Amino acid sequence: MKTIGVLTSGGDAPGMNAAIRAVVRTGIYNEIKIMGIKQGYNGLINGDIEEMELSSVADIIHRGGTVLRSARCEEFKTEEGRNKALTVLKVFGIEGLVVIGGDGSFMGAKKLSEAGIPTIGIPGTIDNDLGYTDYTIGFDTAVNTVLDAISKIRDTSTSHGRANIIEVMGRDCGDIALYAGLAGGAESVIVPEEDFDVDEVCKRLIQGKNRGKLHSIIMLAEGVGNAYELGKTIQEKTGIETRCTVLGHIQRGGSPSAFDRLLASRMGARAVELLLEGKSGRVIGAKKNELFDMDIDEALDVKKEFDKKAYELTKILSI
Ligand code: ADP
């Protein structure tokens, strides 16, 4: 294999740049030409592709976002679109591909590997919603961003004796809410994986207030519902002034944490090694801090396990 392409696809995540850098530098170290494909599968269809040099990835390890940009591409879901991509790959002499993205991007990677293009997937999404791996690139940074927000909201919350609902991202996965809530000392954590009772949340708020607590933080995962509606209900039921903060896209930005940079660097290098070993249709994951690779289909079939123990701990520690 002489030429490898790399792209970032779907929702961006802090640490994607560190992964791109690792792919480029490991490739060049092994005398492989690396082609950067812009805007996910769109660039593959439109031929928006450039050779990457050592200097193309200088000064990016600490930057959020992705220098290759990311996008969603409906055309790539069609056979016609993918056939265009296969022609472009041939024209540019790209013999192997590294796809950095979430489960949707992995579906695209799978289709390319089935069409004969050796393809390796790297999990890049803040949601941590891929069951086969303990961590995805970007999740740790997002949790730290949410923690920072909790600290700030806590300050003003205390001054006014308010309850605060903080709505965080994660789609159907409650990991950001759970881990940021646990680390940030939230009074209640509401996630899609566990049923919740609004009266129980209210009871905790009232008990806390009666004990002299000056504020309460309620972490709400976006997959459960809307913070403003919940806030209104809680305020009506408890009489406690309740404010809502929807953190939104700030969770997707920012300089990646050390954890995400290390994970991304190791995964990026491993992806190139796997292609050079002749592997295809595989994704890289991390379990107990060890990297491994597995078949894309099998990986996508692994059901995400919710950390029930951590969830129970949030309840114990917020009595
Ligand atoms: P993520 O990778 O973050 O989960 P998406 O689900 O939006 O993000 O997927 C990113 C892109 O992957 C899509 O815009 C599309 O180009 C490609 N993709 C998703 N699903 C498929 C599929 N079933 N077949 C081919 N390509 C797909």
TrEMBL record:
<dbReference type="GO" id="GO:0030388">
    <property type="term" value="P:fructose 1,6-bisphosphate metabolic process"/>
</dbReference>
<feature type="binding site" description="in other chain">
    <location>
        <begin position="125"/>
        <end position="127"/>
    </location>
    <ligand>
        <name>substrate</name>
    </ligand>
</feature>
<feature type="binding site" description="in other chain">
    <location>
        <position position="154"/>
    </location>
    <ligand>
        <name>ADP</name>
    </ligand>
</feature>
<feature type="binding site" description="in other chain">
    <location>
        <begin position="185"/>
        <end position="187"/>
    </location>
    <ligand>
        <name>ADP</name>
    </ligand>
</feature>
<feature type="active site" description="Proton acceptor">
    <location>
        <position position="127"/>
    </location>
</feature>
<feature type="domain" description="Phosphofructokinase">
    <location>
        <begin position="4"/>
        <end position="275"/>
    </location>
</feature>
<dbReference type="GO" id="GO:0005945">
    <property type="term" value="C:6-phosphofructokinase complex"/>
</dbReference>
<feature type="binding site">
    <location>
        <position position="243"/>
    </location>
    <ligand>
        <name>substrate</name>
    </ligand>
</feature>
<dbReference type="InterPro" id="IPR012828">
    <property type="entry name" value="PFKA_ATP_prok"/>
</dbReference>
<dbReference type="InterPro" id="IPR000023">
    <property type="entry name" value="Phosphofructokinase_dom"/>
</dbReference>
<keyword id="KW-0021">Allosteric enzyme</keyword>
<dbReference type="GO" id="GO:0048029">
    <property type="term" value="F:monosaccharide binding"/>
</dbReference>
<dbReference type="GO" id="GO:0005524">
    <property type="term" value="F:ATP binding"/>
</dbReference>
<keyword id="KW-0324">Glycolysis</keyword>
<dbReference type="InterPro" id="IPR022953">
    <property type="entry name" value="ATP_PFK"/>
</dbReference>
<comment type="pathway">
    <text>Carbohydrate degradation; glycolysis; D-glyceraldehyde 3-phosphate and glycerone phosphate from D-glucose: step 3/4.</text>
</comment>
<keyword id="KW-0067">ATP-binding</keyword>
<keyword id="KW-0479">Metal-binding</keyword>
<dbReference type="GO" id="GO:0003872">
    <property type="term" value="F:6-phosphofructokinase activity"/>
</dbReference>
<comment type="similarity">
    <text>Belongs to the phosphofructokinase type A (PFKA) family. ATP-dependent PFK group I subfamily. Prokaryotic clade 'B1' sub-subfamily.</text>
</comment>
<dbReference type="GO" id="GO:0006002">
    <property type="term" value="P:fructose 6-phosphate metabolic process"/>
</dbReference>
<feature type="binding site" description="in other chain">
    <location>
        <begin position="169"/>
        <end position="171"/>
    </location>
    <ligand>
        <name>substrate</name>
    </ligand>
</feature>
<dbReference type="GO" id="GO:0042802">
    <property type="term" value="F:identical protein binding"/>
</dbReference>
<dbReference type="GO" id="GO:0070095">
    <property type="term" value="F:fructose-6-phosphate binding"/>
</dbReference>
<feature type="binding site">
    <location>
        <position position="162"/>
    </location>
    <ligand>
        <name>substrate</name>
    </ligand>
</feature>
<comment type="function">
    <text>Catalyzes the phosphorylation of D-fructose 6-phosphate to fructose 1,6-bisphosphate by ATP, the first committing step of glycolysis.</text>
</comment>
<dbReference type="GO" id="GO:0016208">
    <property type="term" value="F:AMP binding"/>
</dbReference>
<keyword id="KW-0547">Nucleotide-binding</keyword>
<keyword id="KW-0460">Magnesium</keyword>
<feature type="binding site" description="in other chain">
    <location>
        <position position="211"/>
    </location>
    <ligand>
        <name>ADP</name>
    </ligand>
</feature>
<dbReference type="GO" id="GO:0061621">
    <property type="term" value="P:canonical glycolysis"/>
</dbReference>
<keyword id="KW-0808">Transferase</keyword>
<feature type="binding site" description="in other chain">
    <location>
        <begin position="249"/>
        <end position="252"/>
    </location>
    <ligand>
        <name>substrate</name>
    </ligand>
</feature>
<feature type="binding site">
    <location>
        <position position="103"/>
    </location>
    <ligand>
        <name>Mg(2+)</name>
    </ligand>
</feature>
<feature type="binding site">
    <location>
        <begin position="102"/>
        <end position="105"/>
    </location>
    <ligand>
        <name>ATP</name>
    </ligand>
</feature>
<feature type="binding site">
    <location>
        <begin position="72"/>
        <end position="73"/>
    </location>
    <ligand>
        <name>ATP</name>
    </ligand>
</feature>
<protein>
    <recommendedName>
        <fullName>ATP-dependent 6-phosphofructokinase</fullName>
        <ecNumber>2.7.1.11</ecNumber>
    </recommendedName>
</protein>
<dbReference type="InterPro" id="IPR015912">
    <property type="entry name" value="Phosphofructokinase_CS"/>
</dbReference>
<keyword id="KW-0963">Cytoplasm</keyword>
<dbReference type="Pfam" id="PF00365">
    <property type="entry name" value="PFK"/>
</dbReference>
<dbReference type="GO" id="GO:0046872">
    <property type="term" value="F:metal ion binding"/>
</dbReference>
<feature type="binding site" description="in other chain">
    <location>
        <begin position="213"/>
        <end position="215"/>
    </location>
    <ligand>
        <name>ADP</name>
    </ligand>
</feature>
